Amino acid sequence: MRTFIVEDSPVILENLVSALEELTPARVVGTAADEVNAVNWLIDESNSCDLVILDIFLKNGSGLGVLKALTQARVPGKWVVLTNYATPDMREKCCALGAHQVFDKSNELDEMLNYCKRVASGSSDTLPAYFS
Q: What is the 3-state secondary structure (H, E, C) of 68-104?
């Protein structure tokens, strides 16, 4: 499962890549630390991925801007938000912008990894959160 990660913390990015590649069938094919580079990579038709994992707060731009761009460009795949700011309002906003799931970095990492396994297996229980 080709995965692209949008995360501005080098430590979190390194740990996330390790966890994904060791515990799920994910292979990280690209990363970005800001909105512009993420959007440019994701809308470039020469690139492709099955899963996008993104944070909300970035050094430049935001994950919300990335979600808007993904929706406008109709980029295929699953889009997952992994954030420390997974409030009910933020979850709703992310899902309204097209996120399939929203996970809290501090206490839902196992759930996110399990979701990634289900996506890789083609499981039908990976519908967007607002349909769950």
A: HHHHHHCCCCEEEEEECCCCHHHHHHHHHCCCCEEEE
Phi-psi region of 34 (alpha: psi -120 to 50; beta: other; left: phi over 0): beta
Map tokens 């995965």 to a residue. Answer: 3
Percentages of the chain per state (helix, strand, coil), in multiples of 5? 45, 20, 35
Residues 123 and 13: their CA atoms lie apart, in Å, by: 26
Contact 21, 29 (CB under 8 A): no
Instruction: Render pLDDT for 11-24 as a digit per residue (tens, 0 to 9).
Output: 999 999 999 999 99
E strand segments, the chain: 2-6, 27-32, 51-54, 78-83, 101-104
Residue 111: CB atoms within 10 A of its CB come to: 12
Reading the block at residue 10, the tokens are: 């080098």
Per-residue pLDDT tens over the stretch 56-78 = 999 999 999 999 999 999 999 99
